[in-house]
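Dear H.,

Thanks for agreeing to be a second pair of eyes. The structure we're designing against is below in token form, covering all 227 positions.
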């Protein structure tokens, strides 16, 4: 029973984390200063096709799954199936979060757009805090970074920088070719790439242990009762 309780808490943390992650991306899109490297390709697809960001998020993540299979030279049906389910959930969250953000006043001035961007940095960081601490399957983009790290024997940080750069360059190229503008790439992309890691590190140092204690509370109480 305790194991089920812990698993349910991890799922709750995971689902809420993904929602906040999508909500943060929604704020960055509405700021129109450039989205984070992780979301740049999906948003570039949305700008060039006219389809929703949620649908294009699913398409982009399916491409990331295919790249994993190519680099690993094998298809792991169970792992990729779980990633695909998470991708559909996140795609739904993306469209929902954009709908919610667009209920707010449109940021028409540069100051208002920067406020939306700053909000996005903190909201994305909160989402990542829950998402990573849930210790459940990674989304395709994050899983691909680990695959790149293993395949080319790179440190994870270097693999992360590499995957982000490639994603941003491809997204920028797509936008330049089809809409003759950088579209999803801007100063906000650089700001997100630099500050989200720092904000997440700040949150991790203060809230990671309380989150772990909350998730494992039942387990800890059981150990205390046994004593």
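And this is the sequence the design step returned. I haven't edited it by hand at all.
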């Amino acid at each position: 029973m305790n194991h089920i309780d812990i698993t349910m808490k991890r799922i709750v943390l995971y689902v809420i984390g993904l929602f906040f992650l999508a909500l943060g991306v929604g704020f960055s899109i509405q700021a129109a200063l450039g989205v984070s490297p992780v979301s740049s390709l999906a948003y570039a697809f949305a700008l060039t096709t006219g389809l929703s960001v949620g649908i294009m998020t699913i398409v982009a993540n399916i491409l990331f799954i295919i790249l994993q299979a190519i680099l690993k030279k094998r298809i792991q049906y169970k792992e990729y199936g779980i990633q695909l389910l998470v991708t559909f959930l996140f795609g739904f969250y993306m469209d929902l979060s954009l709908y919610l953000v667009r209920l707010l006043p449109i940021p028409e001035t540069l100051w208002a757009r920067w406020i939306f961007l700053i909000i996005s940095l903190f909201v994305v960081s909160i989402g990542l805090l829950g998402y990573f601490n849930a210790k459940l399957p990674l989304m395709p983009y994050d899983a691909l970074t680990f695959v790149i790290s293993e395949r080319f024997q790179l440190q994870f940080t270097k693999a992360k920088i590499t995957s982000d750069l490639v994603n941003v360059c491809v997204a920028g190229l797509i936008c330049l070719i089809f809409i003759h503008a950088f579209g999803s790439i801007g100063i906000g992309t650089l700001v997100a790439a630099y500050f989200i890691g720092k904000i997440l590190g700040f949150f991790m140092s203060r809230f990671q242990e309380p989150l772990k204690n909350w998730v494992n509370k039942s387990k800890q109480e059981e150990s205390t009762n046994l004593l």
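Two observations from my side: Residues 188 and 200 are 17 Å apart (CA to CA). The chain has nine helices and no strands.

Warmly,
E.
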